[in-house]
Write the structure tokens for this entry.
Amino acid sequence: MGELRPASLGGEAGTSISVPKSGLHTSRSLSTTAIYYGNATRDQPSVSAYTEGVLRDIIASAGIERIQILSAYRTVEEQARFMYRAMHHVRPTFTGHAAEVEIVAKSMVGQIQVAMAAGSEARQIPTPADILKRMADVIDRLERRHGPLAISPHRQDPSRLAVLNIGVGVGGSMQRAALLRRLLRSPAISRVGAPRLLRGVSRGAFSTVGQWVHIEIPQK
């Protein structure tokens, strides 16, 4: 994952703000909260100042100093890369139309394994780049047939709906639980997904495929 870069209070990428190093506390002010991006170059341009403001209000009330945005709007190619990394090698990972993309990718992975076992020449063996291109082509075809959200809500127009994955590896279980409760109660957030490790406090949230919290924020 890329370099962690904090957003400034005004939303500028890569600008540091003061964040205490003494750990997480029960209450925070907005001046000591920070939003970090796993990949600021890729994700921050699609995250509005309104969305960052909503998140700062929530994490401050939850007693958390910082939060990491792992993923926001995705291009077709970025969606293919995400799915390729997230796929489980044995069991199915995705459902619905996304499962069709996964089947194609795993079929090509199988071709690689068979070709390598048979000692095929390198030029005859699909590469990861070939798999990603094929996945992107399938995503594009399915979106044209079934609509722009056929594969993932992360393909939504970010000027209408901010769709974010947020890291939950901050603070202890009490802070994570407090964060999730506030996300679920926020009138600014229309939908929340949570990993199984937080399912005990995530009534009203759907289950995510990874260890992150998924949120959707309609834009104003």
In short: DSSP finds six helices and seven strands in the chain.
